[in-house]
């Protein structure tokens, strides 16, 4: 991670494996799961991990690389915050910690006492709140550990000194405190590219960490220890190497950890993956079949130490709300099925640390409900009706996930089955008469929200939207600042294609015409424009480029831009 919000470096190592995983046999993996599950009775350490579910990350705080824990924009951690998280139903907290700027010079590499005191204060608050707690060496992974190949002895000495002091400070704490050796270990910043060499260095770090903690006294002889794969990646070769490390240590209190941010194209909204379709779903299934087979089925518990979507680095709206909810619903369900504890990555954008409110309470409801049961949804959470057009009966496909639809309501009133809607299996039909009432104002945008309730899981919100044809206007600007005046007329942008008029894909990631949402383009509904961002123009050659903007109502609007040096001119088609 090279910036305070960016986790997209994971995509560089995961995307190939994620794409290839689609061709694996999920059915075969499921059979293997059943066979191996019988061979591994539930252990004490598996029960420990089970009791941690669900978990939450105190991200972008003590892991901040600035002067103090507020340097990345989050307020100072308070005991009240920790209590509020516990009150939300969380059973565990991961407290990422960056030690770099608080470590003294060689040869002692002494950690500042004040910083250790502060870390201990937060840890104690979490333990007092009856939470399981994980602490680690966090952004140090890319700040200095990543240079281990070129500075082997210095890096190892500094790492060992840090863990010697951390282990000693916390050795008498409850065993509900666990240590994670290092976050997302990587060595490419130091120039390492050989996979075998990187795995060798990680094994050395994990083994050294284990030896230091186990010999440090107090309760550390039995304290649960968490070990990551290279970059904490769930790719098979890297998990295989971690399995070898864990089995070689022959310690019953070791937990494996991986991180998961989804099928990369969907996770960042690129290459046309705007919906939670089969490739994205299959990636969850196959990834965690593999994780299960490698670890859980063989008696090694797994914590998914971070999960989320990479698009959240830009904005939580990069992935459309309904598609996002379906992703998290299935992910939490499948992790539960595979007996893995998951810890939500929260850099401050999910749980507001001043108001103690969720920025998206619906998403939070899906995450918590998924720990118990499946929730239902619809093929899309958007119903578009064109302004002024004759309203007809509208069919909506349900994804029941084994549940039954019980009620539909709008504006606090229940709709009447047979009159306002009909149901045939998983096909819901919204009657024209009811839709006409709901959109009587004919204002652009959301006119009503239908709340669908089921016998299990959380309710599903179906938005009824009045829209009309989108209009794009001519524009002039530069590669640093270019915006297309846009009359959205109630519509929302899904994705953008960019190709040279002369042929070939334009912009970054030119293996696809569909560009990355939030990185190369971004709609601004308040200012009524679509911005083409500097990152897009950085990889655009001079000449004419044809853009196609895809909207959620199904419309595709073509627009042309001409780049000449730093100047850009846009023309509507």
UniProtKB/TrEMBL annotation:
<keyword id="KW-0136">Cellulose degradation</keyword>
<dbReference type="InterPro" id="IPR040946">
    <property type="entry name" value="CBM46"/>
</dbReference>
<dbReference type="Pfam" id="PF18448">
    <property type="entry name" value="CBM46"/>
</dbReference>
<feature type="domain" description="Carbohydrate binding X2">
    <location>
        <begin position="379"/>
        <end position="464"/>
    </location>
</feature>
<keyword id="KW-0326">Glycosidase</keyword>
<dbReference type="InterPro" id="IPR001547">
    <property type="entry name" value="Glyco_hydro_5"/>
</dbReference>
<keyword id="KW-0624">Polysaccharide degradation</keyword>
<dbReference type="Pfam" id="PF03442">
    <property type="entry name" value="CBM_X2"/>
</dbReference>
<dbReference type="InterPro" id="IPR018087">
    <property type="entry name" value="Glyco_hydro_5_CS"/>
</dbReference>
<keyword id="KW-0732">Signal</keyword>
<dbReference type="GO" id="GO:0030245">
    <property type="term" value="P:cellulose catabolic process"/>
</dbReference>
<feature type="domain" description="Endoglucanase B carbohydrate binding">
    <location>
        <begin position="468"/>
        <end position="571"/>
    </location>
</feature>
<comment type="similarity">
    <text>Belongs to the glycosyl hydrolase 5 (cellulase A) family.</text>
</comment>
<protein>
    <submittedName>
        <fullName>Cellulase</fullName>
    </submittedName>
</protein>
<dbReference type="GO" id="GO:0008422">
    <property type="term" value="F:beta-glucosidase activity"/>
</dbReference>
<keyword id="KW-0119">Carbohydrate metabolism</keyword>
<dbReference type="GO" id="GO:0009986">
    <property type="term" value="C:cell surface"/>
</dbReference>
<dbReference type="InterPro" id="IPR050386">
    <property type="entry name" value="Glycosyl_hydrolase_5"/>
</dbReference>
<dbReference type="Pfam" id="PF00150">
    <property type="entry name" value="Cellulase"/>
</dbReference>
<feature type="domain" description="Glycoside hydrolase family 5">
    <location>
        <begin position="69"/>
        <end position="350"/>
    </location>
</feature>
<dbReference type="InterPro" id="IPR016282">
    <property type="entry name" value="Glyco_hydro_5_endoGlcnase_B"/>
</dbReference>
<feature type="signal peptide">
    <location>
        <begin position="1"/>
        <end position="29"/>
    </location>
</feature>
<dbReference type="InterPro" id="IPR017853">
    <property type="entry name" value="GH"/>
</dbReference>
<dbReference type="InterPro" id="IPR014756">
    <property type="entry name" value="Ig_E-set"/>
</dbReference>
<dbReference type="GO" id="GO:0005576">
    <property type="term" value="C:extracellular region"/>
</dbReference>
<keyword id="KW-0378">Hydrolase</keyword>
<dbReference type="InterPro" id="IPR005102">
    <property type="entry name" value="Carbo-bd_X2"/>
</dbReference>
<dbReference type="InterPro" id="IPR013783">
    <property type="entry name" value="Ig-like_fold"/>
</dbReference>
